[in-house]
Amino acid sequence: MTAFSERAWAETSALYRRTLDLPFNRELAAGTLSQERFQFYMTQDALYLTQYARALAAASAKAPDIEAMQFFAKAAETALVVERALHGGFFEKFGVDPKTAAAAEPSPTCYGYTNFLLATALQGGYAELVAAVLPCFWIYWEAGNHIAGIAQPDNPYRAWIDTYSDPGFGEAVKTAIAIADRAAVSASAEEQRAMLDRFKRSAQFEWMFWDSAYRCEAWPVAV
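^ that's the sequence the OP posted. Answer follows.
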């Protein structure tokens, strides 16, 4: 029987390749990404991580075993503490005013992605939620390693690249994948289909997030 993770990755591999080819990621790897675009990305990512941590905490609460509970609880803490510290460093380096960032509103894509995750946490079962949060782990690890392999040593975004290509992050990704595969084994056929749907939707949002950052996406109408 094919593991859930193998099927999920196979069915989104073409989308992943398109993600790597986005102008944002190509220019980040080359070190030519504009400061304005990176500022926008980091501000939106900080907003995203706050809500992503809530989804991870919900996964911990729903988890049927201690290992998964501990993993998702620690991942929620990491999203809030470690990665926000990275953002703080980038805010200072690239001239982002923390007060301005704190007052920023989520872009349409950020809003859609986080609300999709929180709706899954509220309405879906444990297996669906695990599948929904997995692409953020997995795609960032794969993209981080790809970019690390082609980036120049003096790349101004080296700290970001190093974070997502770090072996420690890779171990966390492997654990998240293993947890998702275990959840799929215990799931019904209907739940497995829902898991795949959630994984694919999050993979789409990952593409959209980088694309929206390159465009500095704004709401089409003001209120």
